[in-house]
What does this fold into?
Amino acid sequence: MSSLSYAAPTSVDAAVKLLAGASGLAKVLSGGTDLLVQMRAGRFKPELIVDTKKIPGVIGIREENGAFIIGAGTPGAVVEAHAGLTAAWPGLVEALDLIGSTQVQGRCSLAGNLCNASPAADSVPALYAAAAVAVVVGPNGTREVPVEQIPTGPGRTSLARDEFILEFKLPARPARSSDAYLRFIPRTEMDIAVVGCGISVTLDANGVCTAARCSLGAVAPTVLLVQAMADILVGNKLDADTLAKLDAAAQAAAKPISDKRGTAEYRTKIAGVLARRTAAIAFDRASGKATGKTH
Amino acid sequence: MNYISSDLKVVGTRPIRPDGVDKVTGRALFSADTRSAGMIWGKIKRSPHAHARIVSIDTSKAEALPGVRAVVTSADFPEISSEMAFVGEGPMNFRDLSDNIMARGKVLYEGHALAAVAANTQAIADEAIALIDVVYEVLPHVIDVDEAMKADAPVLHADMFTAGVNPKPATPSNIAKVVTFKKGDIDAGFAAAEVIFEDSYTTKPVHQAYIEPHACLATYNPDGQVTIHASSQGHFMIRAYTAKLLGIDMANIRVNPAEIGGGFGGKTLIYLEPVAVALSRKSGKPVKMQMTREDVFRASGPTSGASVTVKLGAKKDGTIVAAQQVLKFQAGAYAGSPIGPGCMCGFAMYDIENIDVLGYDVVSNRPKVAAYRAPGAPISSFAVECAVDDLARMLGMDPLALREKNAAVNGTKTHYGPTHANIGYTQVLEATRAHPHWKAPLAEGHGRGLAVGFWFNIGGESSATVHVNEDGSVVVATGSPDVGGSRASMGMMAAEVLGIDISKVRATIADTASIGYTFVTGGSRVTFATGMAVTQATEKVVEQLKARAAQTWDIPVDAVEWRDGKAYPAGTNAGAFEPLDLAAIALKQARTGGPINSEVSINAQGAGAGFGAHICDVAVDKETGKVEIIRYTAIQDVGKAIHPSYVEGQIQGGAVQGIGWALSEEYIYNDKGLMENPGFLDYRCPVASDLPMIEAVLVEVPNPRHPFGARGVGEVPIIPPMAAISNAIKGATGLRMPDLPMSPPKVRAAMDAAG
It folds into this structure.
């Protein structure tokens, strides 16, 4: 008979030692909204589960000089309730909020969503667009890793078996900055993105974009950070010409497969549609024309 | 007695539901909630292939695993000869059912059961399942219905020769049966037509998606007596199938009906119970089994997918003079799709002189289909109602006016035989025309669609008992599992007849050993047929109550009247006695002749057919192809709504299942014939936020054959939605979407193709 051990250490060191010492498969548990489902489906049969939620810093949000530090396992519901974070990063917050149901929101986390390494993860394109940095802990101490360097393929990350993410850092924002995330799903909720798009921008006083980061989800083996989309936005207002070029750049960057959630052809077109729509929301927010959630 | 014109005090009101507290507090005992001392767990080994010959099954390693109590394969089940059975909602061959629950020789679809184990824990059972060695010879498979009909298609059953063709074919094929229905002269009809419209349509199999997966607990005692706890749409159905498949006398099987978490037709047949009994017999322990959602999708029956063509001929004034339909229904791995009702229902709303319908029942490597709400009719009507809509466009007619002009009325002879009687379709169309939704202006870019639907509704065998308790409260028991609120409606009809408050009546469902035979809860029959049995049983109780009062007063029985829950002397000549209420008579029942109760068993006839019309407004996102339902109104003749909230719920639920069928639900197979979306994440039922409020409009044209005028209501509402939505999309975009589901990629592709 196979057996399963569960540990909930209260320090980073203890957690790292447990992970390093496991003889079989060891999995890090945050909210468990992916891991437990996958175990039930028989995709993983771990020997050890290390629950990180009792480690100081893993749950909670703090602001430091305009930057935000979000504990890796902070539940979606807690993130969404944070007024300061929602004002500064509405796109990231709404992306996380799109995951699952109200019940799932009580558990699901940014680190879980990132380390599950699904290309269709909702919060991940928003994290990429936000230039978030993951604080990774392991046997050799702490290292800071841009989030886009964490997933390496479907279900795979660059983390070593005895490493995990402690928290995320979001940089302080210049004036006239904001972000947005849109996904396309056939339903209105409880679904997985057919395509996702995250865009974060900074505008000057005339509405001209001075900085941008753009990402696409569910159109490649990992979420894509698309420099070509950002290049089209920077130096421009969001006029019809820019929108058309952004649409084309998103379609060019998308390298989707056909699967049960959509054909490659359809996903490519939707990547362009979502790029335009997401940019419009991000620009409106950055210029103060729109606040609050869009969906 | 008939109460249609009576001043009703209970029937037609909305008392709180009798099962509500149990369900919202989580206390209701569904199939999977039952446990037994010494219980062990059964699990099923399922085929990983769409079509394969079973070369060998080696269970020795599984049997050797500590904690394993029993392993069974088809060798543990008697071989059943081919024999048609009608204990569920549709025709079922006992041999096929036996093969379906435990494959013999071949596996015919991914998920087909071929062995089962019982072990001390679920984990051990899972491990044992993995230790069963099966050698397969993988065979070519066929999934699509049109492909399965081709001459070179892989043949599933070497002994299947198409029935209904003369002479009998020389070679076996996947076409189990051909059926035809004809009225008038179709060639003459088309020759007389001034306008002809023809198109082809496809639908995907869709699952009933009941929230409760199949589960059961079975105990085989050493004396041969069997007890089964399971939810279903008919515990007598479970008893009949289990008895037949295992060769056990029905008297030795007692089935206790658990609370049911949805059926929609999908629980009118069985998958687990005979396996659990076989495992219990072999292990000597109570065996519990429950499917996962993945099992439910891979191995239990959806309804058919289909390929349909429709051809209509009309005069320029809108008179439809010829109607032709060809339907090809997937049956799944064994014969028995709802092709019959599919052929009958499409044109049943119309009075057309010349009709020709041809249907094919076709097997392929998918799970055997099961009944699903108005089996066959939604598929047939999707095609017909889209075609009628396009015919209206060709004629330049309002689509409602075209339906009004050709509407079936009392006396219309159908193409499948019977003549419509006591129908309320005219009133449904009148209510549709009068409804504010039909007249409301459409927003820019929105489209509006209309479609109508018909379902027979059935009667059948039902049993009911009514017991007067010592304190004057009343227990009503029936043999009908409550899937749609029957405990409420049964209690209300009894309370009405007794003239007492509904709070004094408790309705329950009795097990197979405690009440007379009752056919499944299906075909929208329970409020009609079991309601009739309850009404008659209650009337017999009223007669006894009157007799007890007569005895107390020492006057003739016919000198006693019963009204408002009390016995009164009938007129001054009968004597001056204070009225006796139910409680007073009940208190003295021992002294006046013993317990007061009655049982009635009937085979109810005269179920009133149901008609409905749905109006749907949609908005189409032209960039993503996503269709949003903006407004939805469902109008239906319900005869008499016993409990209007439940009736509205039936109509809303049916419409929502139809919306899922229309827009998002489908089985997705890969090139190996394996289902890729066996879960609610990617098998997309609508969620609440996808939907507007569904407005249910109750038209009440009483069915004179029922004491309160009731008609079945549960099936009609799933028939019109697919066409109503396709017609609305056409209104919004100018494009006909003839293939279900009308999912965003398909709608976007259609728009791209149109330019």
